[in-house]
């Protein structure tokens, strides 16, 4: 499945670039021209990692997306697979030459294993992302509501028990 995914990613980017280049040439549309230019300037590995992340994220919860993005960020700054993040910072912010030397330099040279690395589990020595649980979010939400209303929890619980419990239940469910 992974090789099929990577083939699909290659085809997708090839089609997008081809379509946008043709549309930009045909219509002289500023947005199309700008989009093609930015896609061609971006890190080929970064493009494939981003597309896979978007595709995986469609079927994940917000917390799952946060964990995935965090893991990808750690993998990117680790420089184990590529120095593209550092190279992009160098080219844009340090030297300001706007001429990054991506490695790999084109989409065809991005191997499946390189993309897979960004989605692999973190090692034992790498810091894990600890997300708030739904109950903890509920408590924080209620704390914020209480600050807005200027009431202590016990007063709100005594005066409006149904409102208090409905806030907790509503927040825990969502």
From TrEMBL:
Pathway: Amino-acid degradation; L-valine degradation. Hydrolyzes 3-hydroxyisobutyryl-CoA (HIBYL-CoA), a saline catabolite. Has high activity toward isobutyryl-CoA. Could be an isobutyryl-CoA dehydrogenase that functions in valine catabolism. One of its GO terms (biological process) is L-valine catabolic process. Its EC number is 3.1.2.4. Belongs to the enoyl-CoA hydratase/isomerase family. It catalyses: 3-hydroxy-2-methylpropanoyl-CoA + H2O = 3-hydroxy-2-methylpropanoate + CoA + H(+). This is 3-hydroxyisobutyryl-CoA hydrolase. InterPro entries: ClpP/crotonase-like_dom_sf, ECH_dom, HIBYL-CoA-H. Signal peptide: none annotated. It is an enzyme of class 3 (hydrolase). One of its GO terms (molecular function) is 3-hydroxyisobutyryl-CoA hydrolase activity. Gene3D superfamilies: 2-enoyl-CoA Hydratase, Chain A, domain 1. Keywords: Hydrolase. Pfam families: ECH_2 (PF16113). It comes from Coptis chinensis. It comes from the Eukaryota.
């Amino acid at each position: 499945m992974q090789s099929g995914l990577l083939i699909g990613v290659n085809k997708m980017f090839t089609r997008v670039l081809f379509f946008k280049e043709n549309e930009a040439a045909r219509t002289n549309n500023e947005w199309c021209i700008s989009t093609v230019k930015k896609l061609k300037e971006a890190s080929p590995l970064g493009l494939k990692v981003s597309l896979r992340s978007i595709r995986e994220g469609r079927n994940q919860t917000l917390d799952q997306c946060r964990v995935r993005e965090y893991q990808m960020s750690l993998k990117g700054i680790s420089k184990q697979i590529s120095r593209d993040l550092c190279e992009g910072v160098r080219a844009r912010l340090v030297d300001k030459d706007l001429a990054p030397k991506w490695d790999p330099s084109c989409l065809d040279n991005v191997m499946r294993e390189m993309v897979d690395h960004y989605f692999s589990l973190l090692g034992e020595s790498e810091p894990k992302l600890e997300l708030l649980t739904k109950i903890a979010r509920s408590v924080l939400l209620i704390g914020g509501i209480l600050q807005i209303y200027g009431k202590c929890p016990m007063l709100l619980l005594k005066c409006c028990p149904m409102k208090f419990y409905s806030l907790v239940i509503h927040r825990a469910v969502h």
